[in-house]
Amino acid sequence: MKTNVQQVDCNEPQEDVIAQAAAILQEGGLVAFPTETVYGLGGNGLDAAACKKIYEAKGRPSDNPLILHISHRNELERIVSNVPEAAKKIMDAFWPGPITLIFPKADCVPMETTGGLDTVAVRFPAHKVAQALIRRSGLPIAAPSANSSGKPSPTRASHVEYDLGGKIAMILDGGSCEVGLESTILDVSVKQPILLRPGAITKEMIEKVIGPIAVDAAVLEKPQEGVAPKAPGMKYTHYSPKAEVILVAGNTLEAQTQEICRLVEEQLALGKKVGILATEQTKDAYPKGIVLSVGDRQKLETIGANLFKVLRKFDFLGVNIIFSEVFDTTGEGMAIMNRLNKAAGYHIVKV
Ligand code: TXA
Ligand code: MG
């Protein structure tokens, strides 16, 4: 299949381009499109066959459910069977935006969409291209991140093309994604809401609106043998570049950088090509290895925006091993450490 890559204006999406993409979705095909978090791989969320195509294109296990994307709150009624009070407050505060909610599903949502669960994940993205596409297609669009399963999520159209070119009908190229990390996922289908995946809408921001919430154990720790994380996707290896990733933690930033320098020397002596995931504050502290700055420690949103791009760049550069600094888990730091832990398979060295 030839993949048609179309530039699209993020402020005023061209109607003809959106109409072409919407027609593909209505006919059961797949279109990748930009959102404020990451690029999504869209298909008709009420069509079991389209959802199957999504799993195939990504190489994704079919028990890992998809998120349905809507372009107005009144589209919720059709796909969920109950809207809890906590959900209403979260929607008032953060929709449209980078937070997904888990609801009990309505009958029209096929089990292929929800990976066999009786709940459904719903998100109302803030991105104008995503909104225009959903509105024009008249469908709830099922859209996982538009990467090959296990790879870092795509934050640019070129990432999507690299992973899925030739496998899908169309890619809408709207430039780079502002947030760069996938949406926060909050399960509101249970009595005490649980954070299943941290994102740019932080635990602290949610708690200001609905009070204390629980955090699923899989968010920051390796899921224990035999204990299933509540978001099925959290059990898979994720965000992994080809190289091995090792996180290096220390009491101070200086201790971290010194230990990384020592580890880099060790690997260079073995003839390895070594990458260092550094920050604006530390990038000059590493005399050897391939150093990429992921952003500014004082502005965690810059790190969120660049993380997946930098992991993909290390792959492109062909490094064998990556040493990464770590971050506090407050605010957006929780989402950053969740993704880094998964990229590293929870391999962390503490000094
Ligand atoms: O930002 C995002 O959420 C992006 C953009 C495209 O909107 N989408 C995205 O989808 O990240 P995906 O499929 O890569 O991640 C969805 C996660 C998976 O970990 C999945 O297991 C979880 O959501 N999930 C989906 N439905 C669920 C449900 N009913 N219960 C629990 N977890 C669910
Ligand atoms: Mg994903």
Q: What fraction strand?
A: 15-25%
For the biggest sheet, the summary is: 11 strands, mixed
Radius of gyration: 20 Å
Q: What gap, in angstroms, lies between the N and C termini?
A: 50 Å
Share of helix, binned: 25-40%
CATH architecture of the largest domain: Alpha-Beta Complex
Main sheet: which strands, in order across?
1-8-2-3-7-4-6-5-9-10-11
Shape: globular
- The SS-based structural class is alpha/beta
Arithmetic mean pLDDT: 96
Number of strand elements: 16
Name the bound molecules.
threonylcarbamoyladenylate, magnesium ion
CATH topology of the largest domain: DHBP synthase
Count helical runs. 11
Q: In words, what does this structure look like?
A:
With 351 residues, this protein is α/β, with parallel strands linked by helices. It has two domains: 4-219, DHBP synthase; 244-350, Threonylcarbamoyl-AMP synthase, C-terminal domain (Rossmann fold), CATH 3.40.50.11030. It has eleven helices and 16 strands. An eleven-stranded mixed sheet has the order 1-8-2-3-7-4-6-5-9-10-11, sandwiched between helices. A five-stranded parallel sheet has the order 14-13-15-12-16, with helices on both faces. Helix 1 crosses helix 6. It is globular and about 60 Å long. The protein starts with a strand and ends with a strand. The model has no long low-confidence stretch (mean pLDDT 96).
